[in-house]
Design brief:
By secondary structure, the chain is an alpha+beta fold. Helices cover 35% and strands 29% of the residues. The protein contains two helices and 14 strands. The strands form three sheets. The chain has a six-stranded antiparallel beta barrel. Strands 6-7-8-13-12-9 form a six-stranded antiparallel β-barrel. The protein is rod-shaped, with a radius of gyration of 43 Å. The relative contact order is 0.12.
Length: 279
């Protein structure tokens, strides 16, 4: 303690003397001499410390940049997600507008009303061509009701629950529809039955088409919607099914072999229109 007190008093005395003397005083000369002696050491220490300070500053900037990049990447992810949601919403609106245009347009069958339903389950395997939609008996859906899209015939309802329904697609072996090939040529139209091909990749087959009737590639095929003896087809007339892709006639066959390209892309279905009879 005594030494500390002596040092404090000495410091006060030296500071007082230093402040009162002129620039040419003894303490000022000592200060200048010490500064001159220590200048090389100060410069050397500055040069030695500079790389460490620069490295420290670089690391600080690197950490700040990495943090900023992380924030920018997170913000970019949010923007991309929002863009994807916006694009999905636009696509949904376009599909619903297309369905609405079809329902309001001249191609929509008379004496029917529409139930637009979202597809909630796609075919589980190529040999089970059925989908499930979010509409059921509470929406007025009944078994065997025709199902269409704005492009054409999709299939028919095969099971109905209160809130959902199962639809057999035209590519399912259990679904068949009476059809007519539309043509401007003279003579009767080509009629037959459209059903799934022999394999999932075979598309649709226009079966039981008489050899006496000319059928040409590119002709559209629609539902015939027959009515006879108090009975009628499940499907109204004029629903587009597809376009004739190929025709072959062989002597050993009773009928022509006609393949159809479906009008509907069954793998891209997201909404369908179920037809219910107007009351």
């Amino acid at each position: 303690r005594l030494i500390g007190l002596i040092l404090v008093l000495l410091s006060l005395v030296l500071a007082t003397v230093y402040l009162r003397e002129t620039d040419s005083g003894a303490l000022h000369e000592v200060q200048r001499g010490v500064s001159t002696l220590l200048h090389p050491v100060t410069v050397a220490g500055e040069r030695i410390a500079r790389p460490f300070r620069d490295a420290h500053a670089y690391v600080d900037r690197l950490v700040d940049t990495e943090s900023e990049n992380e924030a920018l990447r997170a913000e970019l992810g949010l923007i991309r997600n929002q863009l994807l949601r916006n694009q999905t919403a636009v696509a949904d609106v376009e599909r619903l507008e297309s369905a609405l245009d079809y329902v309001r347009g001249p191609r929509f069958p008379e004496d029917y009303t529409s139930v637009v339903a979202r597809v909630i389950q796609v075919p589980s395997n190529p040999f089970r061509q059925e989908i499930v939609v979010a509409a059921g008996s509470r929406n007025g859906v009944t078994r065997d009701a025709p199902v269409v899209s704005s492009d054409g015939l999709v299939g028919r309802v095969i099971e109905v629950a209160r809130r959902r329904s199962k639809i057999g697609l035209l590519t399912d072996q259990r679904v068949a529809v009476s059809a007519t090939a539309v043509s401007t040529r003279e003579g009767g139209p080509a009629t037959g039955v459209v059903r799934a091909g022999s394999s999932p990749s075979a598309g649709l087959t226009f079966d039981r088409v008489s050899k006496a009737v000319e059928v040409n590639v590119g002709e559209p095929v629609v539902t015939s919607g027959w009515r006879e003896a108090g009975l009628e087809s499940l499907f109204p007339p004029g629903l587009r099914i597809g376009t004739i892709r190929s025709v072959s006639r062989q002597d050993i066959d009773l009928y022509q072999r006609v393949q159809i390209v479906p009008a509907v892309d069954f793998e891209a279905l997201q909404e369908v229109i179920i037809l219910t009879e107007a009351r």
